[in-house]
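HUMAN:
Sorry, I am quite new to this. Are you able to go through these amino acid letters and fold codes? The numbers rather puzzle me.
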Amino acid sequence: MAFPTLDEVVAQLRTIAENDAIGPETKFASLEIDSLDILEWVFEIEEQAKVTLDESLYGAEALETATVGDLYQRIQAAQPG
């Protein structure tokens, strides 16, 4: 299965966080979502792409300054092939 697009993962995060204002340039630190919401979002990506993501990519430290687009690029770059 193909890796989800940035638009798809943004839409998933909007649904999970119930916030239609989220976009690729939105900083995670500015979002009022908890770690369970982040995990739900990561699980969606893993399921869709049939991959397992390293926790270091989406841990609290990794999200301190990251935007949604930054995290998407990190996750995509970490995938083999």
